[in-house]
């Protein structure tokens, strides 16, 4: 099942990904709305642009992505979908008056 493979690749430490898993990540972890999901996070957008500059090809892009890039891609793709699901598509991250520290603590990479 594709969703099981997706979760396995998204949760495996990036340094342990096989070549096939890296290419799977490049093919599927960018399958989000480029403006409303990917564009929300500067680092996710940067990685997407790196992928696009390689011709949208997982085989070509793989050689330009380092382990840290894959870690960022794994995390940001999950945050993007998590945020999209729980916000109902609204950009509400950091707007909880009960938990302002969550927004303040987020890394600059987001």
If you had to describe this structure to a student in words, what would you say it looks like?
With 110 residues, the chain is mainly alpha-helical. It is built from six helices and no strands. The longest helix has 21 residues, at 67-87.
**Overall morphology:** globular
H/E series: HHHHHH
Structural class: mainly alpha
Q: Can you tell me the residue ranges where pLDDT is under 50 for at least 5 consecutive residues? A: 92-99
Distance between the termini: 30 Å
Number of DSSP strand runs: 0
**Number of helices, where a helix is a run of at least 4 consecutive DSSP H or I residues:** 6
Radius of gyration: 14 Å
Helix content: 55-70%
Strand content: under 5%
Average predicted local confidence, pLDDT: 84
Major sheet description: none
Brief summary:
With 110 residues, this protein is mainly alpha-helical.
């Amino acid at each position: 099942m594709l969703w099981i493979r997706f979760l396995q690749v998204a949760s495996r430490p990036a340094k342990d990904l096989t070549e096939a898993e890296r290419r799977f990540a490049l093919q599927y972890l960018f399958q989000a709305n480029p403006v409303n999901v990917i564009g929300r996070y500067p680092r996710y957008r940067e990685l997407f642009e790196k992928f696009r500059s390689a011709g949208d090809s997982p085989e070509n892009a793989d050689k330009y992505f380092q382990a840290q890039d894959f870690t960022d891609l794994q995390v940001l793709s999950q945050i993007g979908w998590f945020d999209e699901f729980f916000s109902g598509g609204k950009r509400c991250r950091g707007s909880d008056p009960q938990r302002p520290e969550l927004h303040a603590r987020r890394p600059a990479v987001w």
